[in-house]
Amino acid sequence: MTAAVTAAVRRRRLGARRPGPTMLGLGLAAALTVSGCASTSPGTAADATAGAGVSLRIMLGSSFVNGRFKRSSTCDDPGHDYSPELAFARKGGEGPLALTMVDVENAKVHWVQTGIPADADGIDEHSLISGAREWGNDLGEATYDGPCPPAGETHRYRLTLYALDAPIDLTTAKTPTDAVRELGRVARARSSVEALYTRVH
After folding, report:
1. 128: domain CATH number?
2. Alpha-carbon distance 61 to 66, whole Å?
3. 57 within a domain of the structure (yes/no)
4. What is the average per-residue pLDDT within 72-93?
5. DSSP character string of 53-88
6. Which domain holds residue 60?
7. Under 8 Å between Cβ of 169 and 4
8. What pLDDT is recorded for position 12?
9. What is the mean pLDDT of residues 25-38?
C-alpha cells in the first residue's frame, strides 16, 4: 500500500494543505447519537458503536449543505477538491482517532487518515492536523479525493471516525479496503455519517 504522507508532500493539485488546528465553535450541519442508528438519510447517522468507556460522534461541517457535499470538495472543482470540514465529539479514551471516507455505491475508498490527536474536536477544510497521516486510496493517491460519481448519478459517501487504543501502522494493508477493515477491527468505538453528491455533467 502507498506509504503515508505528511503535510509537506500533500497534494498534486495545489501543493501542501495548510496545517490546521482543531475547530472550536463550528456550526454543525448534523449530529449523531452514540447508540446504533439505522437511518441512512444524508447528514444523519449511518451507524455508531460505543466501546467500554468510550463514545464518539462525527458531524458534518460547513463543507456540506443539507447533507450534500459542496462542489469545492468534489472532483467537479479540480482547482480545489478540498477535504471537508468535520466536527468530532468524544467521551473517554486517550488513544488517537482515525477517519475514512468510502463511496457506498461502489465501495471505493476515497480517504484514509490516522494519527488524529485524541482531543481533536474536528478538522478544518483543506487541512491536516499536526501528527496526522494519510494513506493510499482507491484512486491511487495518499490524500483525500472527493466525490466523483458518473455524470447524472447520485452517490452516497460514508465518513467514519474511529477511536483507537494506540497508534496504528497500515503499511502492511495490501489495499485501501484492507486498511478500512483493519481500522474497524481494532477500533474501540466508531461513528459514521453519510453525505450525498450528484454530478450533473
Report:
1. 3.90.280.10
2. 10
3. yes
4. 95
5. TBEEEEEE-TTEETTEE-GGGSTTSTTT-PPPPEEE
6. 7-198
7. no
8. 37
9. 33
Residue 1 lies in a domain: no
The pLDDT value given to residue 17: 54
What does the alpha-carbon distance between residue 127 and residue 87 come to, in Å, rounded to a whole number? 13
Q: How far is 182 from 150, CA to CA, in rounded Å?
A: 29
3-state SS track over 113-126: EEEECCCCCEECCC
Can you read off the three cell numbers belonging to residue 68?
450534500
| Count: domains in the chain | 1
**Domain assignment of residue 140, yes or no:** yes
Q: Is 2 among the domain residues?
A: no
pLDDT beyond 60 at 20: no
Scanning the structure block, which residue is given the C-alpha cell 461502489?
Answer: 106
Q: Residue 10 pLDDT > 80, yes or no?
A: no
Q: Which residues have C-beta within 8 Å of that of residue 40, sequence separation ≥ 6?
A: 46, 156, 194
Asked if pLDDT for residue 39 goes beyond 50, the answer is no
Q: Are 116 and 167 in contact (CB under 8 A)?
A: no
Residue owning grid cell 450534500 = 68
25-39, 40-54, 183-197: lowest mean pLDDT where?
25-39
Written as nine digits, the cell of 185 is 477491527
